[in-house]
Design goal:
Strand content: 15-25%
Shape: globular
Number of strands: 21
Low-confidence stretches: 481-502
CATH topology of the largest domain: Acyl-CoA Binding Protein
Strand order of the largest sheet: 12-16-15-14-13-20-21
Radius of gyration: 23 Å
Structural class: alpha+beta
Number of helices: 18
Distance between the termini: 54 Å
Mean pLDDT: 88
Length: 502
């Protein structure tokens, strides 16, 4: 993207060769690599006019994985590296926005603690939930600067309590530990499971991309999102994706907040949207394939963070291959290679017939929720509430529907084993949606009216005046319907979930 002249934050790449050397040397950094990384940081400092670790004008970077083949969510990322107690105060002085700074700082501690130091994510989320309860609010975006400051201190205490060491304040120590964590994630369980399922070789290694941070959480003129240049569900030539105002990218892809459709960006930030449309068209023409892009808007300025060939359903793969051939983007031999035997098999996956739906209604089954059609198909199975149970029951020959507030990369083995996936949070570009589409697993995301209690392995939903309760082992079915909006150029996807009354 840099070579194409697109707005990309300055950065550099540590190669897959370095990763393989690190793993082969029993997790020792190759000779000279760290010195090169430090020198590259200094080169970025010269480009952006900021200094890594300097409280008066601090540079912050992200540390992202980058393998030869796209493995969405399977390896680790750490954002906001370089924030510490001193640089946080410096950023407050520079921006006069303590809420943004403390929000970013807590994100670093939470992500670094979880990804790099191995602290479970749940205590962090519990601390946020507790602070929201104390402040009498429901959503993270409503937390004040003082709230986030309290949470930062609680997060630091959690790291100390769980790991017996303080959260590292030295930015270079943060960077070194994050680089090692991304290298190590190549052989994490979820990455191995994913490669086994997709036929990717285990000896390729991952690169590490160190990139200047740009912030989508700097107020209502900032945003972040993920978009596909064509519809990855059915192949239609239309922009497809989600974004959030005043957020960082993890909020979109992790599915922890329900998102806005990408077409809405044209209403909220029309100038950035027009530039974005020009860029994604250029990217698709350059790579001659549907692109999956990540972007951030910081105070109205658009930045492109990533592009890759997008994952798609079998139906979409066939339509795109035909359409791109007719458009002259690719030739017929290339079109044939774009559709795999596995995708042909996916096309044969079952759908509920009209007769089946009518029979289901006549037998008293209830429509209990509608949400985003994240991955097409129909599925029937027993509800399970964690990936390990889904994997265990699936291997035992049981049909299961994995039910989660949102899925995480560590859930991939359960997602592979499940007949269908249901989440109460997330959208069309969340982790659950992207992985489910690749494996041809039906998925419904963002069913906000479901109250999913993972600890007690149950969910509740109000249907009219009645409250329906679904416990682990109860039978569910989910399917998809496609509805076109009459007021916009984007398509709303709706799925239904049915369950028999207990």
């Amino acid at each position: 993207m840099t070579r194409l002249g697109l707005p990309v934050p300055p950065g550099f790449t540590v190669s897959t060769e370095a990763c393989n050397a690190y793993l082969a040397a029993n997790h020792e950094l190759p000779e000279g690599m760290w010195e090169q990384e430090v020198a590259s940081i200094h080169a970025v400092e010269q480009q952006v006019g900021k200094k890594f670790g300097d409280p008066t004008n601090p540079l912050f970077v992200s540390c992202r994985s980058g393998a030869k083949f796209s493995m969405p969510g399977m390896m680790d990322t750490v954002l906001n590296i370089g924030l510490n107690d001193e640089t946080a105060e410096g950023m407050i002085a520079l921006t006069d926005d303590p809420r943004f700074v403390y929000d970013s700082y807590r994100r670093l501690i939470q992500m670094f603690g979880s990804v790099v130091m191995g602290v479970a994510d749940e205590p962090f989320e519990e601390a946020i939930a507790d602070q929201k309860k104390k402040s009498g609010i429901k959503h993270d975006v409503d937390l004040s600067a003082d709230d986030w400051k309290i949470i930062v201190e609680r997060f630091k205490s959690l790291v100390k309590a769980y790991k017996g060491m303080d959260f590292p304040q030295d930015p270079y120590k943060q960077l070194e530990m994050a680089t090692r964590a991304v290298f190590n994630s190549w052989f994490g369980k979820r990455a191995i499971d994913y490669r086994n399922a997709t036929g990717i070789r285990h000896d390729l290694g991952t690169a590490v991309n160190i990139v200047t941070m740009v912030f989508g959480n700097m107020g209502d003129d900032s945003a972040t999102g993920v978009a596909f240049t064509r519809n990855p569900v059915d192949g239609t030539k239309e922009l497809y994706g989600d974004f959030l105002i005043n957020a960082q990218g993890e909020d979109v892809v992790a599915g922890i907040r329900n998102t806005l459709p990408i077409a809405r960006l044209n209403v909220d930030m029309p100038e950035a949207f027009a530039q974005f449309m020009e860029i994604v068209t250029k990217l698709e023409n350059h790579f001659q394939d549907m692109q999956d892009v990540e972007f951030t808007i910081e105070h109205g300025k658009l930045w492109m963070l990533q592009t890759r060939n997008g994952k798609r359903t079998a139906r979409a793969a066939i339509k795109m291959a035909v359409d791109m051939t007719n458009e002259g983007l690719i030739d017929k031999p290339e079109a044939i290679t774009r559709v795999t035997p596995e995708q042909v098999d996916q096309l044969l996956h079952p759908q509920f017939s009209a007769e089946t739906k009518q029979k289901s209604r006549s037998e008293g089954n209830l429509l209990v929720s509608k949400a985003v059609n994240a991955s097409p198909g129909a599925a029937v199975g027993m509800a399970v509430f964690d990936a390990d149970t889904a994997d265990e029951w699936g291997k035992a020959g049981k049909a299961v529907i994995m039910v989660r507030p949102e899925t995480k990369p560590d859930d991939v083995h359960g997602m592979i084993a499940a007949k269908g996936i249901l989440t109460s949070r997330g959208g069309a570009t969340s982790h659950a949606a992207v992985v489910a589409r690749q494996f041809g697993t039906p998925a419904v995301c963002g069913a906000e009216d479901l109250e999913i209690d993972v600890e007690h392995r149950m969910m509740q939903v109000n249907v009219g005046d009645a409250q329906i309760e679904v416990r682990e082992g109860d039978w569910l079915s989910l399917t998809a319907a496609r509805v076109r909006s009459s007021s916009a150029n984007w398509q709303r996807k709706i799925r239904t979930l049915n369950t028999k009354p207990s």
